[in-house]
Amino acid sequence: VLQETSPEGIDSIANLKLMGVTTGGKKKPIAIINNEMLTIGSKIGKFTVLKISENNVTVTDGKESYELKMK
């Protein structure tokens, strides 16, 4: 079971780096953001993961949604 993480100091979308995504199989998709393994609904700083796709992840701060892309 993955735990929700809330590292302090992550209050800007510029501080989030999408490092990897796993979407295959019957398991929940996992996004690796700032070395944290997150699932849909997980929090990192003030952001919540909304959607995990093959090459991008959508997060929200409660007001706006942002798309993080693999680089």
Layout: helices, strands, pairs:
Layout: E1 18-22, E2 30-33, E3 36-38, E4 43-44, E5 47-52, E6 56-60, E7 65-69
Antiparallel strand pairs: 1-2, 2-3, 4-5, 5-6, 6-7
Describe this structure in words.
The protein has strands at 18-22, 30-33, 36-38, 43-44, 47-52, 56-60, 65-69. A hairpin with a 7-residue loop joins β1 (18-22) and β2 (30-33). The strands form two sheets. The chain has a four-stranded antiparallel beta sheet with strand order 4-5-6-7, with no helix packed on it. Mean pLDDT is 87; it is low at 1-7. It is built from no helices and seven strands. The chain is mostly beta strands.
Order of helices and strands: EEEEEEE
Cα(first) to Cα(last) distance is: 27 Å
Task: Name the structural class.
Answer: mainly beta
Mean pLDDT: 87
Order of neighbouring strands in the sheet with most strands? 4-5-6-7
C-alpha Rg, in Å?
A: 11 Å
Q: Estimate what percentage of residues fall within beta strands.
A: 35-45%
Specify the number of helices: 0
Let me know the number of strands. 7
The percent range for helix content is under 10%
Large-scale geometry: globular
Concise account of the structure shown:
This protein has strands at residues 18-22, 30-33, 36-38, 43-44, 47-52, 56-60, 65-69. It is mainly beta and 71 residues long.
Features:
three-stranded antiparallel β-sheet, 71 residues, mainly beta, disordered N terminus
